[in-house]
Amino acid sequence: MYYLHKQMETLTRAELEALQLERLEETIERCMNTFFYRSRFEACGIVPKDIRTLDDLHKIPFTTKQDLRDNYPFGLAAVPMSDVVRLHSSSGTTGTPTVILHTQKDLDEWANAVARCLHMVGLRRGDVFQNSSGYGMFTGGLGFQYGAERLGMLTVPAAAGNTLRQIKFIMDFGTTALHAIPSYASRLHEVMEEVGVNPERDTKLHTLIIGAEPHSEEQRRKIERMLGVKAYNSFGMSEMCGPGVAFECKEQNGMHIWEDYYIVEIVDPVTLEPVPEGEVGELVLTTINREAMPLLRYRTRDLTRILPGECPCGRHHKRLDRMKGRSDDMMILKGVNIFPIQIETILMQFEELCTDYLITLTNEEANDLMTVEVELKEFSDDYPRLQSLTREIIHRLKDEILITPLVRLVPKGSLPKQEGKAVRVRDLRRTLI
Ligand code: ADP
Ligand code: ZN
């Protein structure tokens, strides 16, 4: 089984593209089992045979999250429901949930993809893999569970929360690899410090898988230093199965997206035209290895770019740059477009600061205000030093986002912590009449 995997990882571009076309044709045929895609094709005056090359893909209209909602729960099933063995639902961060259906083959292929990612970063049979994701509907739970088992690792379904128990498991079971969302990795370290556990001295942890929420390179490096591990960026979403869509290799420079599973496009979110190579736009994905619920040209709303050039690791699957955020994360202040990740990138460059921060937007009369609260690593009552640190942070933020925020340095652990993905922005602006 694993032999087949390696073959997929080392395909040349030409081989990959030939495989993609073959799988795309099969996928489109399968989509015709759904009323939704049949009527979409009809409305655009196209038939499956019009798609003869990968370039022809642009003739097909996009599929959006709204389409999934409109067809909730089973409207996009391309196989009889008796062949569907599992469903997952998106965590609904941005609205009504959506449902994704899987056949047994879909689940097997998904586990293979996750196993491939974990193998790529050096994990092997004999490693102990602990998963701190929520199980249940959140795909980070079962997705990593089956992938890690497929690779033959002892897999610990610790699930989310209960940090003390999490630390105990890491120590008692000799956990070598942990999957955690970045904000939770920081929390874990904080609690380790509180109870006097030194991760380098007291645990066998060497690898961390972090993903599910946007984070900066600077945050990754901080987490690596705190826990004494290598941390690899993992990208996925429920609509594309879950984890295992794109993953960093040991180069830690961009995430290989598995092109034997997905066709990747980057489009301008406004004009929906392809952006020039290497430029940032919205990620659009077509599933080409899925039976129960194939999706054509799905608009993910995630903003990223394809990294130009070849990866030194030798894999030819394209690399996605670190996510810039979702198009709906963009804040508009005084007419300036700002992404939370720009603020994070600056904050994480200060050694004195922890990784937790909160951006609050308010308005007074017609004036938008941004307040950035960030946790200090160590308590200090050296006010002149704190003042000059605050001034320096404001100065660097202004350089990056072109507006002047208020900055508040707060004690470690004082910002609200979430069970799941971190909330980085609170928009309290009132509409002014
Ligand atoms: P929801 O859409 O409800 O949050 P998902 O669990 O499906 O539920 O979340 C998928 C989304 O999480 C992606 O579309 C993306 O915005 C974000 N995401 C996942 N992995 C990463 C990552 N490595 N970096 C940045 N964002 C990520
Ligand atoms: Zn690589």
**What's the mean pLDDT score?**
94
Give a quick account of the main beta sheet: strands, pairing sense, barrel closure. Answer: 8 strands, mixed
Radius of gyration: 22 Å
- CATH-derived architecture of the largest domain: 3-Layer(aba) Sandwich
Structural class: alpha/beta
Give structural notes.
The chain has 2 domains: 1-327, 3-Layer(aba) Sandwich (Rossmann fold); 330-427, ANL, C-terminal domain (GMP Synthetase, Chain A, domain 3). Helix content is 32%, strand content 22%. The chain contains 12 helices and 20 strands. The protein is globular. The model has no long low-confidence stretch (mean pLDDT 94).
Write the layout of secondary structure elements.
Elements lengths: L1 H8 L3 H19 L3 H10 L20 H6 L15 E4 L9 E4 L1 H17 L7 E4 L7 H12 L3 E3 L6 H10 L4 E4 L1 H13 L4 H4 L4 E5 L5 H11 L2 E6 L10 E3 L6 E3 L4 E6 L13 E7 L10 E7 L14 E2 L4 E2 L4 E3 L2 E3 L1 H8 L5 E12 L2 E10 L6 H19 L4 E5 L14 E3 L6
Parallel strand pairs: 3-4, 3-5, 5-6, 6-7, 17-20, 18-19
Antiparallel strand pairs: 1-2, 7-8, 8-9, 9-13, 10-11, 11-12, 12-14, 15-16, 17-18
Helix pairs in contact: 5-6, 7-8, 8-10, 11-12
Quick gist of this model?
The protein is of the alpha/beta class.
Relevant terms:
globular, alpha/beta, 433 residues, 4-stranded antiparallel beta sheet, 8-stranded mixed beta sheet, 2 domains, Rossmann fold, binds adenosine-5'-diphosphate, GMP Synthetase, Chain A, domain 3, binds zinc ion
